[in-house]
Request: fold
Amino acid sequence: MGTGLTSAQAARVRETLLCARTPGWHHLTRWLARRAAYGMLLAGFVCVAWAWPAASQTGQLTESEVKAGFLFNLTKFVEWPDGVFADARDPIRLGILGGDPLGNILNRVVYGQSVRGRAISIRRYKFGEDLRHCHVLFVSGSEQGRIPQILESLRRAPVLTVSDADRFAEAGGVIEFSVEGNRVRFVVNQDAARQARVQISAKLLTLGRVISRPGVLGNN
Reply:
């Protein structure tokens, strides 16, 4: 990807994304450390594939816990344009749209946490409500059929859109999660990020698959 992260630097970024205050995260961190010790932390992969022990195998982590941790920690690798926050104490507003697969897990992850001095507030939304007040919006897979309308409603709004819905990034969302076997991957749509005026860290881009497709947002 051209940013030249060493394997150790990439491992630190992965650890930042994976660490959260959810039961079982310390087990995941130790597991990753063991992988790093054996030189198996996904070096050379084109797209990110953080391996995580399946809950059925360890009884420690669920897919929802992993996604909640990623969703929170993504905020550490994103910058919003000037004027988005009312003041230095204005929280990062994280919205959940549609069926909520993360439930109280996300609340536990963000409780008492801050990013660059800003607390995290969470709000659940229904389709049709104004979403432009979010800084981060997780679009549930339950909204798969409404994604074009949702993204259209956010045209040019400085909102980091994230979803586990299939082909979300291709449709014009900024970041798409997917789970393949026991691995979590993500795709970043750079055109969508630019249109939303959110700047994503080059370190994060190095670990994800980057595409440049305007999707439903168009080029206007």
